[in-house]
Write a structure and sequence with these properties.
The complex is a heterotrimer of chains A (about 250), B (about 230) and C (about 240). Chain A is built from 11 helices and no strands. Chain A is mainly alpha-helical. About 5% of the residues of chain A have low confidence. Chain B has 10 helices and no strands. In chain B, helix 2 packs antiparallel against helix 3 and helix 7 crosses helix 8. Chain C is about 40% helix and about 25% strand. Chain C is globular and about 55 Å long. In chain C, the strands form 2 sheets. Chain C has a 6-stranded mixed sheet, sandwiched between helices. A 4-stranded antiparallel sheet of chain C has the order 2-1-4-5, covered by helices on one side. Chain C is α/β, with parallel strands linked by helices and about 240 residues long. In chain C, helix 3 packs across helix 4, helix 3 packs parallel to helix 5 and helix 5 packs parallel to helix 6. The mean pLDDT of chain C is about 90. The chains are: A mainly alpha (about 250), B mainly alpha (about 230), C alpha/beta (about 240). Chains in contact: A-B, A-C. Chains A and B meet through helix 4, helix 8, helix 9 and helix 10 of A and helix 3, helix 4, helix 6, helix 8 and helix 9 of B.
Chain lengths: ~250, ~230, ~240
Amino acid sequence: MLDILHDYGPLLLIGQYPQGPLGGLALTIILALVSLIASFPIAICIGLARTSSIAPLRNAALAYTYVVRAIPLLLLIFWTYFVIPLVTGYNISGTVTMVVALVVYEGAYLGEVVRAGINAVPKGQVEAARAMGMSYSQCMRKVVLPQALFNMLPSILNQFIMITKNTSLAYLIGTQEVTFAAYQINNQLLTQPFQVYALLAGFYFVLCFSLSRLANWLERSIERKRAGVASHRTNSEAEQPVLLGQAK
Amino acid sequence: MSIFNGFASLLQGDYLHAFLGGMALTLELFVISAVLAFLLACVLMAIRLVPGRATDVLVSAYVEYHRNVPSLVQLFVWYFGVPQLLPASTQNLINDNGGEVIFAIIALTLNAAAYVSEDLRSGFRSLPSGQTEASRALGLGYVQTLRKVLIPQAIWASAPSLVNQTLGLFKTTALAMAIGTAELMYITRQIEGETYMTFQTFAVASLFYLLGSWAIMLCGSLLQQRNQSRMAR
Amino acid sequence: MIEFKDVNKWYGDYRALHDINEHVSAGEVVVVCGPSGSGKSTLIRTVNRLEEIQAGNIRISGEEVHGSRKHLNTLRSRVGFVFQQFNLFPHMSVLDNVMIGPMTVLGRSKADAANKGRELLAKVGLAHKADAMPLQLSGGQQQRVAIARALAMEPPVMLFDEPTSALDPEMVGEVLQVMKDLAAEGMTMICVTHEMGFAREVADRIWFMDAGQVLERAVPEVFFTTPQHPRAAKFIADIRGH
């Protein structure tokens, strides 16, 4: 395996750059970051919609969430990849497809995280803010969201780990991230599939395991910070939303 | 060509047959993996309970591998990688008997078992320690305590997470298409490739997954309601 | 200044407020007391529409509280509310808590809000805690900050919903002192409280409530010595019995 790493390291790490577009693990990380950041505004809108008092808004967000959570991410990717060109007439690259599909997907899941975060802020604070004369938007911006998002950081990080693993599906639409790179290497070597794919697994493991350790540490520090201040919620399960059917 | 004409032609004859075959295999993968995963998770729990750090580390390593490596890559390791390690006769045996399905089930089962065992573990940890004490004080033995008092409660406590995993497993079966398993996603792509009726074929597949997932979610919430009224907390 | 006319509220079949017809004049301090579940908190929360009413109306300086929601935020900014659970914003410092109302709602500049904030914190005896985080303070200190926060909006009327009920006994006094000072300055106040000593000292009138109705309204001397309504008499006797 060390030989493979030695010979094909660059391919796995950065794809065919500079002879081609950036690929490999670098593309994996970029895809994941871009998707997380781009899905954030949508997730906040969905989270706000789901906790809003305006029924049509609430129901629309609910419908969106329940549809996206019910189909495999793979199907969503195919929808994006094949149907958008049909509808708009533009052919879009695999990378763009992945980002769009992941953004739609994460809009629902991250939206759930935001919703749980908003609900976890004690109602008394909302009352205090509204009693002062703050509007809904001022109350959300200054009081609820800052606290909700901070408390949800571990969950957001967990979602990022999920997104990173989900980028492997880009392989199936020919995007040259790290799984595709491994496939290319295997096609060249032909006689060492186990080593190649074990190496691939190793790359993901190191990346995701480190991130999950970070998430654990974050969760513990937030718990410590809150436990030090007579919070009536002690079970972190209450905060971490049980997210229905995440693709792994 | 009208969209609705397309649907009609898809839902009859050979195409219908193919779709149904794909759905059947999806359900087969799902049910078999779900059952095996649960059993394996229980075994993992039992291993963890054996005193000593070694077992803990072993199971943790298993769980962390399966939680940090994408399911797709796990499938590849099994389907492309493992056969290399097996003797040629075994390889041939597997290939002749639907290797894709076998490896898909293996990969899905091991993957799901990791998550389920963690959920069961959380379920166990959420039980008040008073339960064990009360049970032993009444005179029940170690195994009896587990069987009659702890395990049933742990399962009820982890029920919501278990429903999640079930839902996740149902959708993850779609990844098996990447190793050639002829489940619904694979069939859908095939039919789409033949008929170019992209929208309609994907719509059929989406409908199947939507209905399946919502059925699982519905069972989950019914279970939750029954659970809550049972415990009357 | 505050008028209740034929106010009624139901939770489903349960009648929480029953034909409330009352009046609070400017500069008056009204204490609302009564047994648990009498509707006192519900009543005070209808004044700034934290609770809805199904019949009747409530007016503050002639303005309808339960009409259209268009000017509700403005109206609320003119009514200070102090909660039993303080409800300070934990992610902001004490001074920021006091500043946020004037800055966000009244559009004051940061400098103005900060000056006013420090003044008010000094008034409640907590100038030295301006940069502390709320959860580092004791309950009594937090409630005093909450009062300062409400006062920062310069409201003509202050509402207190059981402000000392969540405090350990030794901290009740410091909060009541702030409230007494406020009353002495002529603030219009409605206080829901169990602190009868405070009521006797400071209230201009006492409303006794039970089962959603105001059963008696009287000045403290009369209320505590010769209550008219039998349930009021029982209430006073029960309190004395401790």
